[in-house]
């Protein structure tokens, strides 16, 4: 099942990379994917947050310095959640704080990424 999930995830990322070439933001969904891939086990099951997950979350936060980059990251995260039904939104909401990162929006399917500054 993990292999199937990774294949779906990789196909999704390739599509996003193609689409991201039209965006103004410098950050790509591939960048977002690379940063959050170590978090998948936590996003599915909760528990301990892997150290490499927090490294990725901090790196993503550092990379998303502009409004367009934050909007891009937000949209990429929402797309990931929509395509991976076994990821739990409650885990996503607490992930930044568990990693000691403060982001200016809630990681949620209900977040309107267009309003992220």
From TrEMBL:
CDD domains: nsLTP1. The gene is Art ca 3.0102. Plant non-specific lipid-transfer proteins transfer phospholipids as well as galactolipids across membranes. May play a role in wax or cutin deposition in the cell walls of expanding epidermal cells and certain secretory tissues. InterPro entries: Bifun_inhib/LTP/seed_sf (IPR036312), Bifunc_inhib/LTP/seed_store (IPR016140), Plant_nsLTP (IPR000528). This is Non-specific lipid-transfer protein. PANTHER family: NON-SPECIFIC LIPID-TRANSFER PROTEIN 2-RELATED. It comes from Artemisia capillaris. It comes from the Eukaryota. Residues 1-25 form the signal peptide.
